[in-house]
Specification:
- By secondary structure, the protein is an alpha/beta fold.
- 30% of the residues lie in helices and 22% in strands.
- Strands 2-1-3-4 form a 4-stranded parallel sheet, sandwiched between helices.
- A hairpin with a 5-residue loop joins strand 11 and strand 12.
- The longest helix is centred in the first third of the chain and has 13 residues.
- The radius of gyration is 19 Å and the shape is globular.
- The protein starts with a strand and ends with a helix.
Length: 264
Amino acid sequence: MRLLYPSSPLRSRQPDEQYQAEFEAVQSEGFEVSLFSVEEFQSGVFKASPPLPAGATVLYRGWMLSKDEYSSLVAAIQRADSHPLSGAADYLACHYLPNWYPLLTEFTPETHVYPVDCDLAVELRALGWGKYFIKDYVKSLKTSGGSRIAKLDDVDLVVSEMRRFRGTIEGGFCVRRVEEFVPKSERRHFVFDGKPYAPTGEVPEIVYQCVSRIKSRFYSVDVIQRTDGALRIVEMGDGQVSDLVGWAPEQFAKALAQAFLKLN
């Protein structure tokens, strides 16, 4: 297996600073690595350094890519006679909330999905929840006032801020019922080839429920404790574009090696 990372915009032979520690950690575990310029890729040019070897399985670790961008990356890897660990459908299976939500409805807050061109205030009024959490298929609003609202008058502001800070609404709107969670109780787990890993402690049963239902080879599961004590899934993501929240790079690299290099 070869890992593919984004290069630094200023130093093409070095990984992006965000991935420097992980880049070094996976090499220490025995992985081969390549770099590519995201900026060049987004302008239509893909050049990996060192070149991707024919027959290699390629695992991307980098910034989130849109549906079309990821499809283009898959095509570029295949043109090098290499094989992406996750095809375009696998990427979207966990990257887009509407794809994984129907498989895990009892473990995660109730969610309704709406097209980009809908009148969102009208749709929320019909739900009548009182509080709403608004995001697109991929991300919530982390800046400004955030994605959680209690007044329908705030809907237009949230949507305009999403467009402003994210540049686009990806896929459509996902409106999630607000549940009350214990602060700082959220933990990220990674699933590699059907085996879940936790940064510390035991893997909770709710993550094994994901493993039994989600068949993608590499994804993340974020679990949080509700104030009544129940564990809930608040997010899933394709593992290739999931940050190491709560993980040391060395922990992540060892788990990756155990899964894909079959180390003990």
